Amino acid sequence: MISSNEYGSHSWELLVTVDHQHEEVQKEFLLRVTGDLHIGGVMLKLVEQIKISQDWSDYALWWEQKKCWLLKTHWTLDKCGVQADAKLFFTTQHKMLRLRLPNMKTVRLKVSFSSVVFKAVSDICKILNIRRSEELSLLKQSEDALKKKKKKDKNSKEPVTEDILNLCNSPVSSGLSGSPGLYSKTMTPIYDPISGTPASSTITWFSDSPLTDQNCSILAFSHPNCSPETLAEMYQPRTLADKAKLNAGWLDSSRSLMEQGILEDDQLLLRFKYYTFFDLNPKYDAVRINQIYEQARWAILLEEIDCTEEEMLIFAALQAYHVSKLSLSSEAQDFTCESEVDEVEAALSNLEVTLEGGNASNILEDITDIPKLADNLRLVRPRKLSLKAIKPYWFVFKDTSVSYFKNKESAQGEPIEKLNLKGCEVVPDVNVAAKKFAIKLLIPVADGMNEVYLRCENENQYARWMAACLLASKGKTMADSSYHPEVHKILSFLKMKNWTMSPQAVSDPESIDMKPECFISPRYTKKYKSKQLAARILEAHQNVSQMPLVEAKLRFIQAWQSLPEFGLSYYIVRFKGSKKDDVLGVSYNRLIRIDIATGDPITTWRFSNMKQWNVNWEIRQVAIEFDQNVSIAFTCLSADCKIIHEYIGGYIFLSTRSKDQNETLDEDLFHKLTGGQE
């Protein structure tokens, strides 16, 4: 039997643990509460009972069993579902976090553990002065990389001391507004666009930020490379399955750090997650450009992305003799004299990079005339077993299709075959030294991909046809304003690859100090002796020796973007109805199904043809519908399906950005596209 007094009482005891640094004061408190008491009232009762005079404004209640914050202070305990068995933790919302940046430097700063990751990354980027924070996210290091690090620490005789840049006194982390996150035409230039040094007029700007002098140089400049021994000890993915593991640790942007098990002073990686670098501008983006360059550099050195020997030497030349040396000299120089303003503006117009590859406002097109290409090329079909595998034909490129004829005279009639390139994969097959200029086309057909090669005679012909193929694969014609900049970009990359043997270069005294193993991935350092590599890097360097610092980094980024595997994030999946695992490559404009054993693309699906996508959270299956009644469904084996769902939605969100958008990003739209209804 229950007494009338007990029956009429609605109050109960709630245990709250307080996270404070006062050892003499107890940490656990029992509060007598009722279900209709709101969260704000609970916190007020608690602070009155603690009797410690301090600022409690950053504190909030964390519900340990449910792994959630109780941030809606007007909600009652009943509405939150809090009962007597709940264990609540009264703790700070902003905590210290160690972040490993793309340049492998570690910064320690205060981050909101209660905001969703999308907002936390935005605040982090304001501290670091990186615009377009929506392109970045936080990543947990893969287990294989951690195992290799532990093994290295175990084998090392000396204790490993990590050089950490402490930014814990940053204004943003304490809730104040930071630097503007988006481009504005009225913004004062923050950096010199040639050297990347902070502009003299913005020294005062830096004084309110943790990014003063030395800190800025750590983030905006490249520093001497690590030793070959250190590089050898770092984790390098060997297979597609290994590469898939690298992408398994992305945090959920719609949940907070605490909700995802991240603890105070944990280490996470800050990385560019989405490979659509929008509105790169040297006037404002010295840190951003350097961090993108560093992410590209490490991806190439650790063989996370494949490239040819010729391309590897170009990357090495840009790193070894250009960026490294110029960064060291730039830190001691000031290029921001008033007399140089005109030169800076002129250089900027050449350096601005956009998603489509440059500013094409000066190109005048006659829109009534659809351009076309017509030329003699050679066709190669590797899968057809015939004696004459390579045949010359007369090719005509119009709209998004390539037709070929027996000869020029028969071009008025019916073509032998018409290849529709919309949605195809375009892969360069080039060796400048051997005068090989081929375009590999993987054209979607009912049972997979049809493989065709187009062989060109020279650089100019290759650049025109390659640019046309790239645009056609995206559903664009040569009338598009990005065609001519694309041709120019391809030609400039080929020019960098085109070097000749120079006796002066080989005998260059600088080669004595050079360790090519610092700039070349292990696969190629095993093939050649150190002196041979040094000589070849010096040869390649002749074509890039006159570039200013920021342009060298932008060229490196553009060359990285030209690689066939650029921007692909891999996941191991099982397609509905399939009996074996496949790899799914997620890019900014398409999904690619890849054979896990051979690495060959099987099918490509473009986002532009996507009608809808959703997730069945019960069976963790992603389902996507495309035009022409094409639908696919798969479960993800190497990561949570939420990660792929967020990748697709994130890329679609980023495609809605416009350079005229001076307002803040539509965060609600991002969560609507990426969050899912779990």
UniProtKB/TrEMBL annotation:
One of its GO terms (molecular function) is integrin binding. Residues 378-474 form the PH domain. It is found in: Cell junction; Cell projection. GO terms for cellular component: cell projection; focal adhesion. Signal peptide: none annotated. It comes from the Eukaryota. One of its GO terms (biological process) is cell-matrix adhesion. Transmembrane segments: none annotated. Its main location: other. Keywords: Cell adhesion, Cell junction, Cell projection. Pfam families: FERM_M, Kindlin_2_N. InterPro entries: Band_41_domain, FERM_2, FERM_central, FERM_CS, Kindlin/fermitin, Kindlin_2_N, PH-like_dom_sf, PH_domain. Belongs to the kindlin family. This is FERM1 protein. It comes from Oceanites oceanicus.
